[in-house]
């Protein structure tokens, strides 16, 4: 499984850092939704789903967390520890987010609006949907 991590351009100067993200330039899709998680309680694991067509970029803009990616054949754990790193998560990819530091803010840029019908929340159904693709 290939992990696609973007390293965003930092506009740093003596005042500090600034990152700007533009759709199609820095992010490979139209950004239709932004959401973020914060004040995540210790030992919480979130996600546990795949998407039929949604693409996302995950950015831990403060603190740290880990992302488990699972394409049905292979699993990879990706730590997100810098505000200039963006992890691309394609459709048909099971994801879990965990090990949030108390100060973690995990921001997600998404290619579509929130649509419950795009979710696959059952792991066995996810595996079956992957099989169908092959
Ligand atoms: P949930 O899917 O449980 O989050 P996660 O996959 O990170 O565990 O979402 C939590 C709640 O927020 C749930 O009631 C649905 C709602 N929600 C929205 O209304 N819009 C969104 O864009 C997202 C991601 C969630």
Compact description:
This protein is mainly beta and 134 residues long.
Topology record:
Blueprint: E1 5-7, E2 33-38, E3 46-51, E4 56-62, E5 65-70, E6 75-80, E7 85-89, E8 94-98, E9 105-110, E10 119-120, H1 123-133
Antiparallel strand pairs: 1-7, 2-9, 3-8, 3-10, 4-7, 4-9, 5-6, 5-8
Count of β-strands:
10
Note the run of SSEs as H and E. EEEEEEEEEEH
Helix content: under 10%
Averaged pLDDT: 97
- Radius of gyration (CA) equals 15 Å
- Kindly identify the CATH topology: Jelly Rolls
The coarse overall form would be globular
Question: Which ligands appear in the coordinates?
Answer: thymidine-5'-diphosphate
Percentage beta strand: 35-45%
Largest sheet: 5 strands, antiparallel
> How far do the termini sit from each other?
15 Å
Strand line-up in the sheet with most strands: 1-7-4-9-2
CATH level-four homologous superfamily name: Jelly Rolls
Low confidence ranges: none
Helical segment count: 1
């Amino acid at each position: 499984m290939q992990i696609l991590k973007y390293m965003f351009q930092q506009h740093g100067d003596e005042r500090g850092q600034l990152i700007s993200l533009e759709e199609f330039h820095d992010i490979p899709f139209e950004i239709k939704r932004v959401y973020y998680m914060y004040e995540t309680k210790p030992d919480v694991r979130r996600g546990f789903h795949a998407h039929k067509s949604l693409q996302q970029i995950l950015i831990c803009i403060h603190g740290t967390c880990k992302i488990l990616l699972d394409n049905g054949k292979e699993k990879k754990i990706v730590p997100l520890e810098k505000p200039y790193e963006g992890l691309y998560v394609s459709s048909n990819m099971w994801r879990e987010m965990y090990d949030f530091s108390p100060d973690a803010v995990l921001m997600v840029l998404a290619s579509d609006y929130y649509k419950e019908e795009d979710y696959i929340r059952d792991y066995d159904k996810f595996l079956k949907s992957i099989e169908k693709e092959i």
